[in-house]
What does this fold into?
Amino acid sequence: MGTRLSSHFRERRLELGLRPGHVARLLGFKSLVGCANQIIRFEERGEIRWDLFVRLAKVLGIHGETVERLMDQDRRENLEEWSKRANEPFRPFLLIKYLTGVSAELDLPDEALNNQESMEAFASSLAELRGKAVALVLSHRISVFFGDDGKKLCTHEAAPGDPPGAAMRLSGSTKLFRFNAGADGQALRPLVQPTPPSIKPKSADE
It folds into this structure.
C-alpha cells in the first residue's frame, strides 16, 4: 500500500507528464525497465532505496521540506493505526521456532485459554516436550518467550509497526509472513501490519 509520501511523488510525476521509463532515463540508470519498476513499486508500496529516493526527488523537483512533512505525517498516521490495531480483540496463540527466522503458528487449546498462568504453563510444557523455543503471543503488543528447555526467558512488548512474536520477511521487502501449522499441514500466511515508508540504505545502481 502506498503512503502520503509515495502518492505525492506519483502525483508530481503525472503533473510533469512523465512515465516511469522517462523518469528512469532522466535518472541516468543503465536498466530503464529495472529503474521504472522500482519507481512503480515505490508509488504503490512506499518502498525505495535511499540513493534512488534522493535522485528521484531531485528530478521531480520535490523539496526536502515537503519530504519531511509527508514522512512525519506518514509516521504519525502509522502510529495511530498500529495503536488502534493493538487494542483490538485478540485470541492468544503460540509460535514454535524451527530454524533461525522460521517459526510456525499453533492454536492454543480452548482449555488453556482460562488465564495467562494456564497459557504460560501450556507453552512451557510444549517447549520442553518438543525441545524447541516457543513464544506465547498474548496480544498485538505482548509476547512471552520460553527456551527449548521450557524455561521462561522474558516478556516482550512489540514496538509500533512490529508484529507480536517473530515473523519472516524476504530480502529487500517489508512484507511479513509466518507459517501456520494447522490440521492440513503448514501454510504460508502473510501478516497485515501497518508499516511506515521504507527507505533502504544506499546500494549500487542496477
